[in-house]
Write a structure and sequence with these properties.
Layout (H helix, E strand, L loop, with lengths): L1 H21 L1 H21 L3 H10 L12 H12 L5 H31 L6 H24 L22 H8 L2 H9 L33 H23 L2 H11 L4 H29 L1 H18 L6 H14 L4 H11 L5 H28 L3 H23 L5 H20 L1
Length: about 425
């Protein structure tokens, strides 16, 4: 599983770094092809080493979360196609639909595997291979959708205009360079001589080529590198905290401390997932009123507090209440965070920056469960919840400290346009 995680990290990072240079559609197609190939191998092969190679080179998620280059490229394309005023709305629906798709996949996979295992002659291995066959089929669907994508998803570069230049005659050049006295003398002449017509070129010269020898590797500006470094450090703490209090460990906590049945825990997490997904739409409305950064912090901070309080009560009902309250706000920072990141860097840098951020978050989250397992082995499980809540609260406060008052390029441009509009209105009045 460790090799699978690192294989996914390397594939995701390489594809996102080269995505704008190679073409976003091509990169999505390549990722979908790797997804299909890995699904086919897992569906047909039983050789351990072949499966290991397929899990490393292909696109297989070991934890159910989205992996591969898809997320960063999709977010970059959505940022490019969406006006800044409604970008948080677009990301809210994008996140909601993604979470809904994940939930549907989990439900369908669980019920289908259970049904297949109950059939005569069906072993669990054979049932799971059917799931990988379905995974490969969905990879083909994604490949087809990537092929028919519009070219508008590609990185848009600014075009330069070239104007036709008329060649001047020697007489016209002398006229332009003549002194004012000569002009006055010519004006007093009652019969000025007729000046020759300007000669124009008989053929239009070829326009300079607008193509540049652009590297397929992205070029990130110094300002964006500073922002990226700060965000990666902060996001790594947040993701590490999420790994400490992962859904798997929270499930283990409720089943061991309160002796809850699996069906009860499943219903609990299904309910909290629905609440968390729907909260993205509320976050978008809040962001329009108080801004992206404040929405990120003021909605995420309460969830950190509720997370730290989960192990405190001895009542299962009260602990479940804290879990539900946490779910109300734990994902409300996702859409504003994506919109903030898109606005913080230049359009040509978005794909690479978002890819790096997603990789950093994934790698950081993978270390959290190790610490939680160590604490659980020492009968100090409650420390994991408190530590995760404290790290998330620290992340929120640090974000507020570092980026409060930050103005993106789009914000500055919008303010300049607003000032220009006001000046024109005052001039008319």
């Amino acid at each position: 599983m460790t090799l699978t995680i690192w294989g996914d990290v390397v594939i995701s990072l390489v594809l996102t770094l080269f995505a704008d240079g190679l073409g976003r559609k091509r990169t999505l197609m390549l990722g979908a092809a790797l997804m299909t190939a890995s699904g086919v191998v897992f569906a047909l092969s039983g050789n351990y080493w072949i499966l290991v190679v397929a899990s490393i080179i292909g696109v297989i998620s070991p934890n159910g979360n989205e992996i591969g280059p898809f997320k960063a490229i999709e977010e970059s394309a959505l940022s490019q196609l969406s006006p800044a005023a409604i970008r948080s709305d677009i990301f809210a629906w994008y996140t909601l639909l993604g979470n809904a798709g994940t939930a549907c996949g989990i439900i369908i996979c669980g019920w289908l595997v259970k049904w297949l295992k109950n059939l005569d002659g069906w072993t669990p291995t054979r049932a799971y291979r059917v799931m990988f066959g379905l995974y490969a089929f969905l990879g083909l669907v994604k490949l087809g959708l990537s092929i028919i994508l519009s070219d508008k998803v590609e990185l848009q570069t600014e075009k330069q205009e070239y104007h036709h230049v008329t060649e001047l005659t020697d007489v016209e050049i002398e006229s332009l360079l003549s002194s004012d006295d000569d002009e006055d003398e010519n004006n007093n002449d009652p019969h000025p001589s007729r000046k020759p017509e300007p000669k124009t070129t008989t053929s239009t010269p070829p326009l300079p080529s607008t193509k540049k020898n652009r590297s397929i590797l992205p070029s990130i500006s110094p300002a964006s590198r500073g922002i990226l470094t700060s965000l990666c450090i902060l996001f790594s703490f947040d993701s590490f905290a999420s790994g400490i209090a992962s859904a798997t460990w929270i499930t283990y906590f409720f089943t061991t401390k309160f002796l809850l049945q699996e069906s009860t825990v499943g219903t609990l997490f299904a309910s909290t997932s629905i609440i968390a997904a729907a909260s993205n739409l509320v976050a978008s409305a809040i962001a329009k009123r108080i801004g992206l950064l404040r929405t990120m912090v003021f909605t995420h901070l309460p969830s950190a507090v509720f997370l730290a309080l989960i192990p405190a009560p001895d009542s299962a009902a009260l602990a479940m209440t804290f879990l539900a309250l946490r779910a109300c706000t734990q994902n409300m920072d996702q859409a504003p965070r994506q919109a903030f990141l898109a606005a913080a860097v230049l359009p040509a840098e978005r794909t690479a920056v978002m890819g790096v951020v997603n990789v950093v978050r994934g790698v950081s989250a993978s270390g959290g469960p190790v610490l939680t397992g160590w604490l659980a082995g020492m009968k100090k499980f409650w420390i994991a919840f408190v530590l995760a809540g404290a790290l998330k609260a620290g992340y929120d406060l640090a974000m507020l400290k570092l980026f409060l008052g930050f103005k993106s390029r789009e914000d500055v441009q919008g303010e300049e346009e607003e000032r220009e509009r006001r000046r024109r209105n005052e001039g008319v009045a």
